[in-house]
């Protein structure tokens, strides 16, 4: 997810402890104790679980100064009821925590950097397992893979590998964890050359719902490997991964951004459509991504929105500028360019880490429909006038990744279902604290995705799981794929690996607990 620096500054949530919701007696390993454990608190968990965990692990509740930070979320509308936070200091602790939760009928939820945006996370009540202490990044002697622990973030991995002469796929925003996006596929600047984040993971060390630790790869639980590659949040807690890395052959990335006035809208989208087919029918693979936004910028215009586009090219300016000639010819009111190392170019979007009360609605598409884009522009301007409090942060967002890397991979081979799609778009706004405009923001978001989808008649609406918000209009098929065999396969793997539906708080395949 990428958004704007104008997002209101980081602010920790203070959540009140609440009671564990009682559930009927479950079968199998998730058996409730005969006495009530409803008044779960950090002192009890520390006394019972603490001695089993490695030195350096932390267990705390809402009265701890670290609690606000440990439970805060990028989307502040996500309000899980975190009764106790457990921060394991070693991978092996995760299985112990999950077994302890199972023995005591506590729900658990793994959190890394807190960028999950979907409302289903708000249904959680129980013990949150924060994996941020698990930050080891270890290059393997063959120089082809690295072991990344579950708590690593995109920024750490990019910088550490760079220091050692390598690169790999991560999400685009540095402060986001590696695993969160990866479990849903994971789009990023290296899509064009190396594929999705998940396409480069060759082995997962995970803990299953029943607390069993297993290794998952092509020869061990390969059925689960398929599910982890696109629907992974539903299946297991990852403790570490083995991920492909590549020697850094590209010294600098070229970044060029433009601001265009709205009268150029048709030209911009037509040029983008041509550009995205210009390399044997696809986007030039080294033009990692272009991020675009349509938004207000009062410093440039009081009543018209502007088109702001940034292009990221994995190589020198001279190569990039050859490809960008058609964009240079449009005529920008403002533009900048710079050549930077990969960690520095990745840092250009670090302003996207500030949290806010988000309303988002997203779509995937093959190409831009110029008529629909004009309709969206008009719809945007109408709503800007109607809702000044939302207008300050509202924007239409475009992610035009290079696709060659992930489209070279057979769509059936992973649970990530939407490989044929070329662009991700979303509408987003931040609802100010205390404002009653949440419904208006959701409606604006929903109508935006409707207009985008009306621009691809005859196609079914699709969206990227990591950008799902939990709205009623997001169907499981639109997220996990319309081919009937996909959901059938996911459900049958769910029955095999998580029969009690313990992993159900991030875009759940099975929505209600079966217990
Ligand atoms: C935690 O729960 C235990 C068991 O119910 C109780 O005895 C104890 O007073 C509680 N501690 C706090 C700090 O609330
Ligand atoms: C944990 O740390 C304490 C003090 O630092 C030490 O005495 C103890 O042996 C350690 N325990 C383990 C299991 O390493
Ligand atoms: C809050 O948590 C983040 C990791 O999510 C960490 O980098 C940061 O230092 C923490 N801030 C405070 C004030 O503890
Ligand atoms: C696959 O996972 C199994 C179980 O963890 C492990 O023994 C084996 O070495 C792994 N194979 C590869 C190629 O990583
Ligand atoms: C372009 O990026 C630079 C950072 O390199 C930034 O300062 C500037 O505001 C951006 N301009 C536009 C038009 O987006
Ligand atoms: C298109 O593909 C062909 C064969 O795969 C290759 O020879 C050619 O260089 C490619 N064209 C471009 C513009 O990369
Ligand atoms: C473009 O979108 C409009 C609706 O905005 C639709 O009527 C038209 O059929 C679309 N064109 C294509 C080629 O899909
Ligand atoms: C844990 O679950 C896995 C997958 O369902 C199963 O194969 C294994 O036997 C279970 N282990 C225990 C101890 O129940």
Automatic annotation (TrEMBL):
InterPro entries: FAD-bd_PCMH, FAD-bd_PCMH-like_sf, FAD-bd_PCMH_sub1, FAD-bd_PCMH_sub2, FAD-linked_Oxidoreductase, Oxid_FAD_bind_N. One of its GO terms (molecular function) is oxidoreductase activity. Residues 77-248 form the FAD-binding PCMH-type domain. Keywords: FAD, Flavoprotein, Oxidoreductase, Signal. It comes from the Eukaryota. This is FAD-binding PCMH-type domain-containing protein. Residues 1-22 form the signal peptide. It holds the Pfam family FAD_binding_4. Belongs to the oxygen-dependent FAD-linked oxidoreductase family.
